[in-house]
């Protein structure tokens, strides 16, 4: 290996090794030291100190998951605007046109979801 390559990525590799080792050590210690006694109370779902009512595996509407996925999708897409804003002055017109195209694609996706009724809670 080239020493320059190791100088560049050595600290990162060391950090990953230490993080993985620490995580493994803590999980192992938790398994060895902790008490593991099964009881009816421990097997019940925890609901903020309130006695649970009904089945814990109650089905949710698929619409709930669709809205959650759309939120995550657009949230992640919005994160990509931050690096662009930081280097906007270096990108000139090309960067502006690129980001305009990116936002237009997001807008088309949003309109498609709106027309399909994915954001409509009434149905």
Describe it for me?
The protein is mainly α and 123 residues long. 72% of the residues lie in helices and 0% in strands. The longest helix has 31 residues, at 3-33. The protein has helices spanning 3-33, 40-43, 62-79, 81-86, 88-116. The radius of gyration is 25 Å and the shape is flat. The protein has one domain (3-116): Methane Monooxygenase Hydroxylase, Chain G, domain 1 (Up-down Bundle). The chain is built from 5 helices and no strands. The mean pLDDT is 84. It starts with a helix and ends in a 7-residue tail after the last helix.
Q: Radius of gyration over alpha carbons? A: 25 Å
Please state the average pLDDT score.
Answer: 84
Task: Write down the CATH topology.
Answer: Methane Monooxygenase Hydroxylase, Chain G, domain 1
What's the total helix number?
A: 5
Question: Quick one: how many beta strands?
Answer: 0
Terminal CA distance reads: 61 Å
Overall CATH architecture: Up-down Bundle
Beta-sheet strand percentage?
under 5%
Low-confidence stretches: none
> How do the helices and strands follow one another from N- to C-terminus?
HHHHH
What characteristic shape results from the CA principal axes? flat
Number of domains: 1
> Which class in CATH terms?
Mainly Alpha
| Helix content, binned percent | over 70%
Characterize the biggest β-sheet. Answer: none
Helix/strand-derived category reads mainly alpha
